[in-house]
Amino acid sequence: MKVLIVGAGPAGSTAAYYLAQAGVDVTVLEKTSFPREKVCGDGLTPRAVREIQKLGLPHAVSEGWRRNKGLRLIAGGRTIELPWPEVADFPTYGLIRTRLGFDEDLARHAQSAGAVVLERHSVTSALTADDGRVIGARASVLDESGRKTGETRDFHADVVLAADGNSTRTAVSLGMHKRDDRPLGVAVRTYFTSPRHDDDWMEGWLELPGKSGKPLPGYGWVFGVGDGTSNVGLGILNSSKEFGKLDYKQVLREWTAGMPAEWGFTPENQVGEIRGAALPMGFNRTPHYSPGLLLLGDAGGMVSPFNGEGISYAMESARFAAEFLIDASSRSASAGWSTHDADAHLSRYADYVRDQWGSHFTLGRLFASLIGKPAVMKLALRTGMPIPVLMRFVVRMLANLTDPSAKGFEDRVIRVLEMLVPATSNTSPASALTPVGTDSAVSATTS
User: Fold this and answer.
1) Residue 437: helix, strand or coil by DSSP?
2) At what angle do helices 374-384 and 348-371 cross, to 10 degrees?
3) Which Pfam families does this one have (predicted)?
4) Domain membership flag for residue 237
5) pLDDT tens digits along 368-411
6) Are 28 and 119 in contact, with CB atoms under 8 Å apart?
7) Can you give the residue range of the structural domain that contains 119?
8) Is the model's pLDDT at 429 over the cut of 60?
9) Residue 65 pLDDT > 60, yes or no?
10) Distance CA 74, CA 234 (A)
11) pTM score of the predicted model
12) Angle at the Cα of 236 from the Cα atoms of 279 and 411, rounded to 5 degrees
């Protein structure tokens, strides 16, 4: 079996590593060259750290990785520090690592296993057979400055994995557009030289106080990178009435202007520009499997509506896809196994992903809808922040750090909640085949 992966981010490189390690012929096409910057909070929860451990990816402090103890939450004049929970299936620490280094580490890890990674190959469309089956991808070759050279290359494969992020040209070229029945978020961030760079906690602001004292929409974060800088950013959901109407970069400026001067979050200390990106949540692009094609990570909208976390789900989806492909590859070597049999087997990937996170994402959609209402959010914070045991439960719920087999009270409550809601569907309604109007609002305010 020959596999082509579009995108060498966390999803693409993770899948490439597992496939190459299993002896599968795998090629990855990456439109940029490493090291490359990506808009992200740079924070990795224990769920993402677990995937890093499974990959065997080194993450020593001496190599630019910084461990953290848990979450520090700030709201309503209160601050509460919540260590990462002790759950059998997850480590008890998180990590901070800039995407500049993290993505390259993953790509080189995949190469070390035998994957071919071709940088500066920008995929423009999927290639299909007469029956519509995806059989490869067409890419424009770019020069070192990122400009098209005029050369195009066609790559053929038995299966293509679309791991090319929110704007996935692979899926869009097949008519698979974003769904308007799913949450969408926008995040903006920048870096500041700051004495807070070595903070041991991932800090989340559940309310954003502006310079005037009037609360700003969205939620914010301050993550110490450990290299002399802090990653400071904010996110806003489309359930907020302000979504698409604001200059989010200006909102970030107003928020940081109201912070203590000794933190150094000032224009003079800013490192690089403020950059933004869309957060595709709750399976907002489907179907996740069609003949010859699987969607991974952000390309399939696999970002949690609870907390905007996408890296862990990108890496998990990649591991799941690789497992199905490795199994299909071994079976195809046996007599009598047809392309139809392989398609039937690989189609189970979509159902498997839905079974893993569908109910969690459904709860996340309800959560996103509720916190978009200021009165509800204010009441929830007033009720929850003074009660540490309640907030610990909330953190486990938001970060999806539960043990399905455990009999503890928190695990049982979360299981009951997820059983009470239907799993978010990852099949494709008619609306998924038409462009969504919010795209322009997102690009206009984050560009």
Assistant:
1) coil
2) 90
3) FAD_binding_3 (PF01494)
4) no
5) 787 777 677 777 777 777 788 888 888 888 899 987 766 666 66
6) no
7) 2-66+97-180+282-373
8) no
9) yes
10) 14
11) 0.91
12) 75
